[in-house]
Design brief:
Chain lengths: ~140, ~350
């Protein structure tokens, strides 16, 4: 890859740039700043939109009363039951039980506190989901 | 190059790097007065690798990696260039007490003593990153320069300038739970050899890389890994749903380009290393190998372009999974030749 071939397609790093190795005119390697590459954007975009769609599905399920808000907040933090259980110090089978709204509503304040701490949200936030979809 | 002061009051020149671990390693050496580039650190740490592990799933997708296991690069460079490095990990036992507090206190103490400290962190909790790059990955390396009001001044090698990081964020990032837990891992240089033997370090490193790529007992790593992945990719539209096949392909491209590789899954960075060693030894053979590595990197880039078209479903007729897999096979064939030649050249070099 030559210096002038380093892709500068799109600026979706929110102003940040990343380093690419490329050959300069004398055939020496130099580090060149790149603002983004289309191919990379497509591959990453697929993963990002998938995550967002999944999160939105969960949010609707919570509003319909099929899942607990805990499930939404866990997915918003891109965790799974295993990581959340370890972070909060609660057994995985209990975490999975708490995804059901009827079990979640009965939880003690001390357990909720641990979930809120692990997910870095406030207690009030933990019990609700945002009324409309939003970016993570 | 941004000028920054460390806690010892020494100027710290932040170099924008492509990869976090090699960038941190190079920065630790440069702080001690050894002039080493990121590519050199990457090469001496034998960072180049390939692995496709179908039985380890990460967010439901098999892991594909273009570099060696996180953590090995740093320890290999430290061993080969010589120097006394101190590393510390915090284990959770019932008698350990509050390890989070211990970890942060130790970090503050080390900074006060005038060290710059490397840390392994979870990238999700580092809020200075753009949202798009925040995901639960426990192997991101950063350097802490000094303590500031309610936070730390952090030199993240992947960004082109040092940033501020909240103490709370750093605490979460260091003690995140999940696969490959960082456990507050931190490392700093106590002393390094003032005149490291670059020549013998390079020779050892090149032989090691050739071994890892050519002579592996497992079919999932090294060149056998590339061939295996190529075969899986060619077959994937027949055995998987169309959407799932595209997801898997997208994941390969992500691992190759997105996660800080300097382009083409570290191949360009390794070519830069070969170029530096060619100058070091005055060897024209190494210069030729560097050019060949660049050519291979260009094919990997082409593979990414073809894959992106498949993922976006553009030009359904000409771009197929078979073509993407075929490009990978070409890479495998040429890389095999390259590493065999490199092995021969490295054996004949005099340190």
């Amino acid at each position: 890859m030559k210096v002038n071939e380093v892709p500068q397609d799109i600026t979706y790093y929110e102003g940040e740039k990343r380093a690419c190795y490329a050959l300069n005119d004398e055939g020496k390697y130099v580090v060149v700043k790149s603002t983004g590459w289309e191919a990379e954007d497509i591959a990453n975009g697929l993963a990002v939109t998938e995550l967002a769609a999944h999160l939105e599905e969960t949010r609707k399920a919570v509003l319909e009363g099929k899942k607990s808000p805990l499930c939404y907040h866990m997915e918003r933090r891109q965790m799974n039951a295993d990581i959340l259980g370890k972070s909060a110090g609660i057994a995985v089978f209990r975490v999975k039980r708490h995804f059901r709204p009827e079990n979640f509503s009965k939880l003690k304040a001390s357990v909720l506190e641990r979930y809120a701490q692990a997910l870095a949200v406030s207690l009030v936030e933990l019990k609700t989901v945002p009324p409309s979809s939003q970016g993570r | 190059m941004a000028q920054e002061l460390t806690s010892a009051g020494k100027p710290f020149s932040h170099l924008h790097s492509a990869h976090c671990e090699s960038g941190v390693t190079a920065a630790l050496f440069r702080d001690k007065g050894i002039n080493i580039s990121e590519a050199m650190a990457f090469g001496i740490g034998s960072g180049i690798f390939f692995g496709h592990l179908p039985f380890i799933k990460w967010v439901g997708l098999p892991i594909t990696t273009y570099r060696s296991r996180p953590g090995t690069l740093f320890s290999k460079v430290a061993k080969r260039l010589g120097g006394e490095f101190i590393t510390k990990k915090y284990h959770r036992f019932w008698w350990s007490g509050d390890i989070t507090k211990q970890g942060m206190d130790d970090l503050r103490r080390l900074l006060r003593e005038g060290n710059i400290v490397g840390l392994t962190t979870n990238i999700y909790w580092l809020s200075y990153f753009p949202d798009r790059f925040r995901f639960q990955f426990n192997g991101h390396n950063i350097i802490v320069l000094r303590e500031i009001e309610n936070g730390f001044r952090v030199a993240d090698p992947v960004l082109d300038h040092p940033v501020d990081c909240l103490a709370e964020d750093l605490e979460r990032a260091r003690f995140a739970r999940g696969p490959l837990e960082p456990k507050g891992y931190m490392y700093y240089a106590k002393s390094v050899r003032p005149d490291p033997d670059f020549r013998s370090a390079c020779i050892t490193a090149m032989k090691d890389s050739c071994n890892m790529m050519l002579r592996t007992p497992f079919p999932y790593v090294g060149l056998r890994g590339i061939r295996y992945l190529a075969k899986v990719t060619i077959k994937s539209p027949d055995i998987l749903e169309a959407h799932e096949a595209r997801r898997r392909l997208a994941n390969i491209v992500r691992m190759q380009e997105e996660v800080g590789t300097g382009g083409a899954g570290f191949r360009f960075m390794y070519a830069a290393f070969l170029q530096e060693t060619a100058d070091l030894f005055g060897s024209s053979e190494l210069a030729d190998l560097s050019r060949e590595m660049t050519a291979i990197g260009d094919i990997w880039r082409e593979f990414a372009v073809v894959s992106a078209r498949i993922i976006k479903q553009r030009g359904q007729t000409e771009e197929t999974f078979a073509k993407a897999g075929g490009l990978m096979l070409i890479c495998a064939g040429r890389e095999e030749q390259l590493f065999r030649d490199l092995d021969k050249v490295a054996r004949n070099l005099k340190s």
